[in-house]
Amino acid sequence: MKKLLFIIPLLAVVLAAFRPAGTEIAVIINKENVVDKLTEGEVKLYWLRKIKKRWPDINKNIKPADRKSKCEEQDSFYEKVLGMSSSDVETYFTQKQYENAEKPQDKFASDSAIIDFVAQEVGAIGFVNVSSLSADAKSKVKVVLIVK
After folding, report:
1. Confidence (pLDDT) at 52
2. Average pLDDT of 56-67?
3. CATH for the 22-147 domain, from 3.40.50.720, 3.10.290.10, 3.40.50.2000, 3.40.190.10
């Protein structure tokens, strides 16, 4: 029994060391948007619509695209780019809706649905797993940031 109590924590430490590095996320926008690259800080400001409600130069409403349910891509984007938890993001958009009658983020069930939305909406900004960006998907949207 004592050996088992020693082996289990040791096994947990060893397995934690060999965890995959994480999900690579691509931040995408519509091809018609003139922006070519964004920093993580800029993505946060645009996705949360903190400073502006419209994209400069194209004068289109910023439309953030999100996942409907909790997933690895969403967790990674929230943590690494927004610096927020999922409950923080929900609270943020609920508060914006209450204070300014601002529409919350559009939510989708899959990466392909986000890619289609961003391809159709000039003001859209979303995030998807890099592995979801097939040649066809890349022809529809513009990648402005890769988050590792």
Report:
1. 87
2. 95
3. 3.40.190.10
Contact, 24 vs 147, CB < 8 A?
yes
Q: Is the pTM of this model over 0.90?
A: no
Unique residue bearing structure tokens 């993001």: 89
Beta bridge partners of 147: 25
Give the C-alpha separation, 147 to 13, whole Å.
Answer: 26
pLDDT tens for residues 31-51?
999 999 999 999 999 999 998
Distances in whole angstroms, Cα of residue 1 to Cα of each of 4, 7, 9, 11, 50:
5, 10, 13, 15, 56
Q: Rounded CA gap, 147 and 138, in Å?
A: 17
Q: Is 106 helix (H, G, I), strand (E, B) or coil?
A: strand
What per-residue confidence (pLDDT) applies to 114? 98
Torsion sign (Cα): 30, 34, 36, 38: negative
C-alpha 69/C-alpha 67 separation (Å) is: 6
- Residue 38 near residue 27, CB atoms below 8 Å: yes
Q: Is 83 left (phi over 0), alpha (psi -120 to 50) or beta?
A: left
